[in-house]
Amino acid sequence: MFFFLGRNLQVSMVSLAPVIRRNSNLSCLKTAGCRNLLFEQGEVQSTSGTKYGRFLQEITSTCYLEDVEMGWAFCPVQVDDLIPSFSKVRRMTVGLGTTLPENILHALPEICPFLESLVLRFQVISDRVVRNLLESSTNLQVLCLQYCLGSLTSFSFQTMAPALRILRLQWVTPWITNDDLTILTQNCNLVELWLSGCKLLDSSSQEIISSGWPNLACLQLEECGQITLDGVNSILDCKALEEVLLRHTGRGIGRTIITDAIRELPLLRKLALDLCDASEGGYDTPNVPEGKMMRSVRMSRCKKSAAAGRSCFGEAPPSSSNPKPVQHRETVVLEWSSRQLTTTVVEERL
Fold it and tell me: Which SUPFAM superfamilies does the record cross-reference, listed alphabetically (predicted)?
């Protein structure tokens, strides 16, 4: 049985216990973002009482979960109590509201020996945790670290991870350099790479990515230094790319990027760009894409500050010492069907 709880549902752990008891084959439980799961008649209940005790007992004695998402609903629950039901977990997401202590994170390869996908958001992580995951979780194919805290360094990724295929490092590794990228290409064979906030990268990073992972199907780079300052020639060498996102990566992308990408990347379906990165102020848009696979192009536009001289990259004028974050005004979405091109303007960044 697959069991999913959406956001803001008026349901409590007390009411879930009998449901779980009647479905002993429950394999998927997703409660991330479901804050009301902890409430009973407007008050937060103690997990030590018999009510939540029944819920935990049903989870641990009845279920062998394979897919689990934890968020606010589990913030007062001792994760140790749930360990018996995690022995068959293959996919795990831990988000805001649940904090796994370091000893549990370090022991995940033993707690979940079949773990294939791990997403950690807003968790406290360390080299010890990440390196042990890569070394000991032999089935791990997907690792996503998003907005995590802790003392992560390049030592985390200086180990072989032959099974890893998807790596997303979003706002957790600002220290990554070209040398670190090179080590990553030697240690894992990726088909999907997301990097955000890696401000030390430059145009040479493109060659490292394209030569190290020539079979990439998805590449997303955001706020990554000056990777596209000299164009995107090396990115176009990754012929297997199906999805590409480039956002605030250097003002060097030419006007013909969309046509070039469609021509050079025969499998490309989705392309997302930011006008901040345009070397000539914008991009040419073809009415009919040459390729058969292209379905959508998104072009985001930033809102410039009223202060004179403020650029889309968030650079303040010389007289200002406190630059403000970039605000995104809108996104132009181009969508191709089998018959026509549709253009839509959405007043937010997509």
Answer: RNI-like
| Encoded tokens for 115 | 């773990």
Q: pLDDT at position 210, please?
A: 98
Phi and psi at residue 179, to the nearest 5°: -65, -40
Question: What's phi and psi for 132, nearest 5 deg?
Answer: -65, -35
For 156: left if phi > 0, alpha if psi spans -120 to 50, otherwise beta; the answer is alpha
Which amino acid, 274? D
The one-letter amino acid at 337: S
Residue 31 reports pLDDT greater than 50: yes
E-state strands within the chain: 2-4, 28-30, 39-40, 43-44, 67-70, 91-94, 117-121, 124-126, 142-146, 149-151, 166-170, 192-196, 218-222, 243-247, 270-274, 296-303, 327-336, 341-346
Tokens read off for 77: 């629950």
Exposure of 211 in the CB half-sphere (CA atoms within 13 A): 9
Measured CA to CA, the distance from residue 332 to residue 223 in angstroms comes to 20
Q: Which residues pair with 39 in a beta bridge?
A: 44
Give percent above pLDDT 90 in the chain.
Answer: 55
CA distance 334 to 348: 15
What would the two tokens of residue 86 be? 């995690």
In angstroms, the CA 203 to CA 210 distance is 12
Q: Where are the domains of the chain?
A: 1-98
The pTM for the full model equals 0.86
